[in-house]
Amino acid sequence: MVRLLVDKVSGITIQECAQLNQRLRAVLDAQASLQDSYTLEVSSPGLDRPLASKRDFERAIGDEIQVEVLREGDRGPRPVRGRVLAVQHEALVLTTSAGNVTIPFTQIQRAKKALQW
């Protein structure tokens, strides 16, 4: 099994995954080191993948995201939805319906792109 997870700044399409699969298959088929049969899978991380690193948030600038923000006490996380305005050294800045909100990375429990259907 040869499995590749691919992405790029603007996102990757199903057609691009299929094209990459065809190109890689041609290269792998030409290699003598793969003597047995194999299965090649090329896919994207998916629309609902978590945003975990600072780089993930930087790539999401301009996109709408859903963030679960930790609160003090036992009240559980508070959901915040907004468009990524900026990524600072230790915080994320979102534009929300209530205005701009700065959220320290240490208070982000989970984050992912908000899906628009």
How would you describe this protein?
This protein is α+β, with helices and mostly antiparallel strands and 117 residues long. It has two domains: 2-43; 54-113, Roll (SH3 type barrels), CATH 2.30.30.100. The chain is built from two helices and seven strands. The chain has a five-stranded antiparallel sheet with strand order 6-5-4-3-7. Strands 1-2 form a two-stranded parallel sheet. The longest helix has 17 residues, at 14-30. The radius of gyration is 19 Å and the shape is elongated.
Mass-distribution shape: elongated
Q: Output the CATH class name of the largest domain.
A: Mainly Beta
Helix-strand sequence? EHEHEEEEE
DSSP strand count: 7
- What is the beta-strand fraction? 35-45%
Query: How many domain units?
Result: 2
**Annotated CATH topology of the largest domain:** SH3 type barrels
